[in-house]
């Protein structure tokens, strides 16, 4: 038994009098509490957060959050029930847990209460972060031959982002095509998502030909 190992109290105080009669840890707890002598409670309990205490999670519209939880033991090494707040594990609307679909900083709290002892608590800080660039793609061909003397309508580009979803509306286009002057023009499409990640720029060349003048 752990109590015997740490040399505090007697085996009788922390567990069954006969060490050969193994009893569940919870039974030992109850016996201690009822007896009014709680050597296990007099020793500090410990709570350990599983996984990373400062955890960065990649933002993704398709992700779900799964909390690694925590474990706790009393001063004698007996397992304690760990309660959590905002872990996403509790069926309470106000405790949805970290949302991996939305960038932000979230806190998950854990605590355990040994019978007759002091509670122990810890917090996990979860940062949902968008660190991935959006995907940018051209609509239409990368090289277009355009007949002079009629307006050129750019087919544009489209973009999606794992965290922010469709981002075609914020693509930045530079470069003009003069549809009334022969030549080869370059149009460039760039995009930075709200997380500050820059997509690989794309270009299109437009060749204006056959001007009547
Ligand atoms: Ca992104």
TrEMBL record:
<feature type="signal peptide">
    <location>
        <begin position="1"/>
        <end position="19"/>
    </location>
</feature>
<protein>
    <submittedName>
        <fullName>DUF5011 domain-containing protein</fullName>
    </submittedName>
</protein>
<dbReference type="InterPro" id="IPR013783">
    <property type="entry name" value="Ig-like_fold"/>
</dbReference>
<feature type="domain" description="Pesticidal crystal protein Cry22Aa Ig-like">
    <location>
        <begin position="137"/>
        <end position="208"/>
    </location>
</feature>
<keyword id="KW-0732">Signal</keyword>
<dbReference type="Pfam" id="PF16403">
    <property type="entry name" value="Bact_surface_Ig-like"/>
</dbReference>
<dbReference type="InterPro" id="IPR032179">
    <property type="entry name" value="Cry22Aa_Ig-like"/>
</dbReference>
